[in-house]
């Protein structure tokens, strides 16, 4: 089975029964959209597969070892780089770690993280257009903390130079928060 198709199959099974935050939208739509953004931007199959699998280790029973066995070391490294290392920490500590880590992460990890955030921010913006300020009630930390996080992620992702997906993310963050 081709790598991207295999990633779609495994991620679909792993995320079965999960939904996007406070919606009836099946969760799998998010990793598929992330993979599509990466594919459209011209990234190789292992990066696209990592984008599709980026939330599996964090949110399902799949392990990094499972990903390494099915997709190889490089794809597993990218997924590991896009996963929060310690879910027991506070939201602020986890987000601070992500912001710092992305400054020096590999270009593949930065691409997947960027595509992930780009799809998230577009989803938030779409929901904002539907329900207005109510959208921020979905987030325990509210609008100002989301603005802080996304603004800092954009800066961290650009620490090693800019790329097309980052410019799209920067524009979306600007549209939503300014």
TrEMBL record:
Taxonomic path: Bacteria, Bacillati, Bacillota, Bacilli, Bacillales
Keyword Hydrolase applies: yes
InterPro entries for this protein: HD/PDEase_dom, MESH1
Protein keywords: Hydrolase
Residues annotated as domain HD/PDEase: 23-130
Entry GO MF terms: guanosine-3',5'-bis(diphosphate) 3'-diphosphatase activity
Name the record gives this protein: Bifunctional (P)ppGpp synthetase/guanosine-3',5'-bis(Diphosphate) 3'-pyrophosphohydrolase
């Amino acid at each position: 089975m081709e790598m991207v198709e295999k990633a779609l199959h495994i991620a679909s099974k792993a995320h079965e029964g999960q939904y996007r935050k406070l919606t009836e939208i099946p969760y799998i739509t998010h990793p598929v959209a992330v993979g599509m953004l990466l594919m459209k931007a011209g990234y190789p199959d292992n990066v696209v597969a990592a984008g599709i699998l980026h939330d599996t280790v964090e949110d399902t029973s799949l392990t990094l070892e499972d990903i390494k066995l099915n997709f190889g070391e490089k794809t597993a490294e990218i997924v590991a780089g896009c996963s929060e290392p310690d879910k027991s920490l506070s939201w602020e500590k986890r987000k601070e770690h992500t912001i710092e880590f992305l400054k020096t992460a590999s270009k593949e990890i930065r691409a997947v993280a960027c595509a992930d955030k780009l799809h998230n921010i577009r989803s938030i913006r779409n929901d904002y257009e539907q329900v207005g300020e109510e959208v921020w009630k979905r987030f325990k930390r509210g609008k100002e903390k989301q603005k802080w996080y996304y603004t800092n992620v954009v800066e961290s992702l650009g620490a090693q130079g800019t790329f097309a997906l980052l410019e799209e993310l920067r524009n979306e963050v600007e549209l939503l928060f300014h």
